[in-house]
Amino acid sequence: MSLTSAYQHKLAEKLTILNNRGQGVLIRMYNIKKTCSDPKSKPPFLLEKSMESSIKYINKKFPNIDVRNSTQHLGPVHREKAEILRFLTNYYQSFVDVMEFRDHVYELLNTIDACQCHFDINLNFDFTRSYLDLIVTYTSVILLLSRIEDRRVLIGMYNCAHEMVHGHGDPSFARLGQMVLEYDHPLKKLTEEFGPHTKAVSGALLSLHFLFVRRNQGAEQWRNAQLLSLLSAPPAMINPANSDTMACEYLSVEVMERWIIIGFLLCHGCLNSNSQCQKLWKLGLQGSLYLTLIREDVLQVHKVTEDLFSGLKGYGKRVADIKESKEYVIANSGQFHCQRREFLRVAVKELETVLSDEPGLLGPKALFAFMALSFIRDEVTWLVRHTENVTKTKTPEDYADSSIAELLFLLEEIRALVRRHIKVIQQYHLQYLARFDALVLSDIIQNLSVCPEEESVIMSSFVSTLSSLNLKQVDGGEKFEFSGLRLDWFRLQAYTSVAKAPLHLHENPDLAKVMNLIVFHSQMLDSVEKVLVETSDLSTFCFHLRTFEKMFAVTLEEPTMLRYAIAFPLICTHFVHCTHEMCPEEYPHLKNHGLHHCNSFLEDLAKQTSNCVLEICAEQRNLSEQLLPKHCATTISKAKNKKTMKQRQAPRKGEPERDKPGAESHRKNRSLVTNMDKLHQHLMELAFTMNHVPSFSVFEHMIFPSEYLSSHLEARLNRAIVCLAGYNNTTQEILRPSELLAGVKAYIGFIQSLAQFLNADACRVIRNALLQQTQPLDACGEQTITTLYTNWYLESLLRQASSGTIVLSPAMQAFVSLPREGEQNFSAEEFSDISEMRALAELLGPYGMKFLSENLMWHVTSQIVELKLVVENMDTLVQIRSNFSKPDLMASLLPQLTGAENVLKRMTIIGVILSFRAMAQEGLREVFSSHCPFLMGPIECLKEFVTPDTDIKVTLSVFELASAAGVDCDIDPALVAAIANLKADNSSPEEEYKVACLLLIFLAVSLPLLATDPFSFYSIEKDGYNNNIHCLTKAIIQVSAALFTLYNKNIETHLKEFLVVASVSLLQLGQETDKLKTRNRESISLLMRLVVEESSFLTLDMLESCFPYVLLRNAYREVSRAFHLNRMPANSY
């Protein structure tokens, strides 16, 4: 064939297009096979029972299906013909694409044979690689086609539906049907078709021999050669890493194995006639048990080859060679690859360390980086496909690697280094191209003995393009584009590889060497990312998810590998590379796989990290707990009684002595590892992996590992805080707020110290977790400490206070448990003193205290609702209000009142609740003042500006602000709001106001009844009463202020009225002759002073006008005398 026709055939262009097209067709065949093998995605009508007869008929008669005379068998197809035609169009056209691809491939292969092309991977690399790739791709397409079980049904049913709709079958059906039949036994047919191409194929494969042998060396040979080492020859460290065949250095071994196995499988005739072919073939058989066709579809090398050769005459020795090779692979390949992986872990780690330290070396040694990536990728893919497919083996350890994460991590590190320092690579190779390659190429062109015009034009353009390069292009961020130059070199390879070419490339190897070097250098300017994908793409994991997950699980169990676990989410970024424009329907599924597994891996890592952090927090909390005041009692006691203890008998040997805080830090031997040491080591490894990259992209989604850790830490911290509270719903036990606060501070302190080690925003984590704990429920809908403490104080402390087993002691500013049997199982003062209220306010914050307040107010209003006795006694109370100063009339009216004790009891309960709220508010005020003094000042100042003349809405707004900060207000806005929601159905505001007035009258005239209660004695020690009636004063003042604010009436006037009526009632008690009724008269009289002290609306002068102070003085003296007499021992008189 003439040179002109070689130009016209455009071999380079056709190989490029057909290889890309072939990959698309192959992926479509894979997609059809995958779809039809899964009942969930299979075309629905193939699963219908009504279609079974039609499917059997089509399968049986294919491809000679008589549509018109087979209505009995094809009736169901006829009924759904339109749907079938619509659904199967893509499937059918994909099969037509296979047929057309086949036609173009054979046409090109015949053309190449006619041109008598010479293939040599070392010279015309692109031409040889594209040729071998085309053969392997075509074979893979045919093999995958034969593996689609429903291919006949899909094609035949489509044609039947087409004929039913259009009146004639599809024009392509006859040829397509014949092709499907021919490839029922694909390898037999393929070997027949490739017989004429044996010379070209075997020639191309033989050129691989030296390269394949070199790339299949063992770890020991690599070690002796100091492969990938930059430190082995320090003087040559900055010398450029060059090779006569640059692209061959990082060519995948798996790709070469596939070329050799499939090439000799199709052109097996040369195996018996050419010893070199036989030698290379045997070497190929000793590499792998399985070879990838596409994704997870593999070729079982030895079985397929043996099955084919067993049916051929004269191939007995080859079958024996196959069996021998298989035994060799089973016995040796596992250890062979295990040792190579071990070598790569060390060698690539050294390379990565040197390049990280001196990124400038990426210029001259860029080839080393891509070689390292290629070697790692080959070892990982070998392990993956064998782990997935080798199920029964005597040596399972050969197909497992607990340290695989380190290799994956190193691969990602090299990729990141190359991307990070791409400008270094560009600057170096731009100068190389312009100042060396261009000059060498120019010299070689001038020394060519023959140079046709076409070739001369192409090579001259190479020199001019390279000579025009300058460093300003890199500095200016200019995008380089050398794809045209590389395609021209590809064309030149094709032109100079035909038999009758005037310029033969194999006669001018120097030209090939320098051009291969130029191609690599040009790729370093414009296609670094493409070379990275070529050498390090691990998207195969997208189709071996079970193995991928298993490797990740093994990594999590291996402490030394934890720091490399981030490699697994990063590998998910590779999945985007397995998409193809000819199969867009795959994109959503691949995207889901990538995002799901990336998310899953990061979730597991974040979960482990947060668990480790919280375990250390728990240990820190245990250490912190040792410093609590309650634990120092023993130490103080021992120190105080030291002399006494010496005189006493020595302690028993069996009694353990409690270690002092800090004893855990004393070690006699540093090799002794504590639990805290292990946890810190574990956390260090996890922190390394979580901090490795701030973000990365998976299918256009930005992934931030720190966000996963933050969310997990936040959730775990929430649960940990709730667990620390130790709330037991059955026994009603809970931790003291001060102890919980100490524990929480220990947790927070450690998490804050992690801020410099973890990318997670520790401040945000703590802020969000603590803020959630101030709400009734956290973000997960779980109860918080706000809910737990609110419920506990209401259900345990205040309920027992209401029943009289717990007393409010104003002197101690706390609730105090009375020594009664079997009621409470806790000491009330330990949960309600000033320090505990401060701790509670610190934990719950303003939001939590507001929630507590709202719940307290709900209980207050529920008690107010029960005060219906006022309405029942309304007529009597109206008369009493008018005649309270008439003793004779009062004597007859008072007995008519019913339920006075009930009213007093409920008001006492209200007073207890409001007293607790006041203590909680005081704790909040102190905490708020210490945290935000700059806010507290203006709030208190604003409150001072409120006067009785201020508009009530403004007053309540200001008081609500002040109350939220814990400031005590004359009118409680929360109580006003709570009572406002208690509107009677049919009552008017006037009636409600009247009831409020009569409530005060009812309480005033009922006070003398309290004197009969033996627990109504005023305790000087507690500054209160054992039945909590001193809380009545707060209830009267607060409820009155809220009610009359609500009805817009004068509070002071009504409280004066209460003071007068109460004074008269108590003065009349002095005339009572029944000693039982006057038992605690003096103690009850003191309530009058407590009322005045409680209210800002009343003064002592007002009290003096209706209740002489001399009576209060006498009452104090009597109470004091009685208290001291009661405490005096019986025999001391």
Helix-strand layout with pairing:
Blueprint: H1 3-9, H2 11-37, H3 52-61, H4 71-79, H5 81-115, H6 125-146, H7 151-166, H8 173-182, H9 186-194, H10 198-206, H11 209-215, H12 219-225, H13 246-249, H14 253-266, H15 269-273, H16 275-285, E1 290-294, E2 297-300, H17 301-310, H18 316-357, H19 366-389, H20 404-420, H21 422-446, H22 453-467, H23 472-475, H24 483-495, H25 509-526, H26 528-536, H27 545-557, H28 567-571, H29 587-625, H30 633-640, H31 642-647, H32 675-690, E3 696-698, E4 701-703, H33 705-725, H34 737-753, H35 762-773, H36 785-803, E5 806-809, E6 814-817, H37 829-832, H38 834-865, H39 869-872, H40 874-883, H41 887-893, H42 900-931, H43 933-944, H44 952-964, H45 973-980, H46 989-1006, E7 1018-1019, E8 1024-1025, H47 1031-1046, H48 1051-1069, H49 1081-1094, H50 1100-1106, H51 1109-1127
Antiparallel strand pairs: 1-2, 3-4, 5-6, 7-8
Helix pairs in contact: 2-5, 2-6, 5-6, 5-7, 6-14, 7-8, 10-14, 12-18, 14-16, 17-18, 18-19, 18-20, 19-20, 19-26, 20-26, 21-22, 21-25, 22-24, 24-25, 25-26, 29-32, 29-33, 29-34, 33-34, 33-35, 34-38, 36-38, 38-42, 38-45, 40-41, 40-46, 42-43, 42-47, 43-44, 45-47, 46-47, 46-48, 47-49, 48-49, 49-51
